[in-house]
Amino acid sequence: MNPDDFQPTDTLDVPFWIERPEQQLAPFLFSSPHSGRCYTAEFKKASRLTELELRSSEDSYVDLLFSKVTSFGVPFMAANFPRAYLDLNREPYELDPIVFKDPLPAYAKTSGTRVGSGLGTIARIVSERKEIYRHKLSLEEGLARIETLYKPYHQTLRRELALAHVNFGYACLIDCHSMPSRVFQNANPNNRPDIVLGDRYGASCHPSLISSAKSILGHLGLRVDINRPYAGGFITQHYGRPMKGLHALQIEIDRSLYMNEDTFEPVPHFQELVDLFGRFSELLIQCASDALYPTAAAAE
Length: 300
What we know:
alpha/beta; two-stranded antiparallel sheet; globular
């Protein structure tokens, strides 16, 4: 793997990318909405934080961990812009009034746990509750991010899932994330999970999908928990409609497995983990397929 792949950039040439196989062989789409590491000079200038502090919200290198999935005949997409700039795993207008100097439109969702904690569509803070901005943003700036970044990403995601559903009769979204190891700092080291799978407590996908994922990861030597403490965010909730043949599963990977969380340096055996998550993806695609199709027919 090229060392440059791990370096943040300061030029946002394209907001996101999608890699498609020559022929799609299964109705899966893998997506990494939080691994973007392009921090523009303008964004860094507007922030009171260092680049490393801004990166603490980033699901670093998740796009690299799942880089093999297209070789199994399924597409993969990922954002280039960082979560600290715009969060794709929120409703489009979960907007925090504290962030903006202008009044927010009536359609904005200005209350709720995520907005109240500073983690709306345009976040006010990063981890450790550090405030991002030196000054309040204009409403025009915030809405421009939603129009030019958020909406195109979700439009592409919806289109890919719709194509899979039409061609195969059902579709599966694997929503790929990572989690800081401090989440489990008080847990018994022998019991803390390496992976947390989320299906909105059974609401976002057929039970066979999450049970297959847990079984495969266990056989690969990883400890897995389900829905604790991450049951899935907006993406899983919004796109998961199992009775209509639309399945969404969130996967959270402990960052300490693959990187130094202070320096953002990948571990020496990073490539082995790429191979491991490639194997996981391949097996999940193979073993989940047969059980999922009937749910689409049952809804008709």
